[in-house]
Structures are given as structure tokens and as C-alpha cells.
Amino acid sequence: MLPVSVFIITKNEKKNLPRCLEEIKGLADEIIVLDSGSTDQTESISKKYGAKFSVRTFDGFGQQKYAAEQLCKNDWVLNLDADEFVTEKLKTEIRGFLSGDLCQKYDGARLKTVGVYPHHTSPRPLADYHNYIRLYNKTVLHFPQHPTHDAVIARDESRIYQFSGIALHYAFESLDALEQKARSRTKFYFEHEKRGKFLKNLIRLPFEYLWSFFKCYILRRQFTGGRYGLKNAMIYAKYRHLRIAQRVFNRCFIKE
Question: Mind giving me the DSSP string for 137-192?
Fold first, then answer.
């Protein structure tokens, strides 16, 4: 099997990191943890599992992941978040991919990260998921150095494989934590993203909450999640609406 480096960006991940690192035992030839100023036991946990721990000031999601991938010694790298846990089926697929001809035919592979609610051990029925390139040859593909875009860039000619195995994503530990995370990210995105066209934002403003709620609750099937699903959709819609409102407000009342 070709050696693979696993890299993870962290900040105060003592609750999730042990399981994340435990699940990649026997898979990773090297583990890179790039931290952005943790005040908990993230560093000691990382070193306990043999990870190479570094600290870098956070200036954006894309920049941080790009910096982490560049610390990896191997060409083939696997990116995980600290709250994502690789399943046995996915581990088996990754080993097979790196052991055979597939890694010669493809530049990278997509894997599904499926959301799991707090206190649950498995995804809810019809759970939504993200399907991004997470395993890739960093001499061919890479993360963009962009503050808000953190998906690997694939060119038109890129050859991308699709894994059927999944990673479990425990994105929040409580509804209060979910709202705090949404508030923090909304503030960061607004400070770093392009504000877009004023007229387009103005037209979107009255409808943004309803559309965002519909997209999250119906199209992303949060309706199967009971109260967690309802609250999740409400929080998502609230902060999507707030981002548009901030753009309009600043354009109208704050001079550049």
C-alpha cells in the first residue's frame, strides 16, 4: 500500500480528536495536526497518537488546510476534520485504492461525510451528506488558499474516484454549540467573503430566511431529525438571512 498522510486542522478538539485518531490507526503512515491556538488538551492528545503537531495562526479555512497538506511528507494525503470518523468499510476501500491500480488511474477520490446528531450512534434516516475530494495526490490537486472556500480544486481533466464507504460527521455536540458555531462562522465569512451585487442581495433579503429554511429542512431532509432537525434548519436559515442583511446594511450605511 502506498503511504498516506492524514492531516487535520484543529482548535480545542479534545472531545472529538481521540476518536478521530483512533479510527485511522493502521491506515495513516503519518498524521499531521495543524492547530490554531487550542487552550485544551488537543496538543497532548495529538502527540499521544504519534501525530506531528504544529501551530499556525488561522487566517481562513482554505489557507489552513493548504498549509497542513504542505506539511505532509507523502504525495497521497487524506484530509479529515477532527469531528469526522472513518468507518471500517471506508478504511478497507482506502487501503484497496492505495494498494492496487486505482491510485495510478485517479488523481483523487471523493468520500461522503454523513451528519450524525448528538447522542446518536448512527445517521438518521435519509441523512444529508457532503461529498468532497478528501483523498488525493497533492502533487496534482490541492486546497485553494482562500479564506472561505475549503474544497479541493479539481480541474476538468482531473480523474476522481468515488468511495461508497462513509465517514461519520458529528458536527455539533448540542444545539447551543450549533448556534455558537453558526454565529462565529457567519461573522468570519462576512469579514472575508466578497459582498456580491447590491441589487441581487436586496432582492434576496425578504425571501432568504424562508428559502434557506426550505432548503435545509426539506431538500437536505432535516425533517427526518425531529427537534434537532427543526432547530438545525432554523439556525441555518437565521444566519444565512443575517449574512445577506449585513451585506445590504453595510452597502447602504457604511462607506468603504
Answer: ETTT-B--S-SS--S-B--TT--EEEEEEEEEE---SSHHHHHHHHHHHHHHHHHH
Domain carrying residue 61: 4-169
Strand-pairing partners, residue 6, are 31, 78
Q: Tell me the residue length of the chain.
A: 256
The residues near 165 (Cβ < 8 Å, ≥ 6 apart) are 87, 89, 90, 91, 92, 93, 94, 111
The pTM of this model reads 0.90
222: Cβ contacts below 8 Å, ≥ 6 apart: 128, 216, 228, 229, 230, 232, 233
CA 145 to the chain's CA centroid: 15
Q: Model confidence over 184-230: pLDDT tens digits?
A: 988 888 777 666 678 888 899 999 999 999 999 999 999 999 999 99
Q: Count the domains in the chain.
A: 2
**Cβ pair 34, 67 in contact under 8 A:** yes
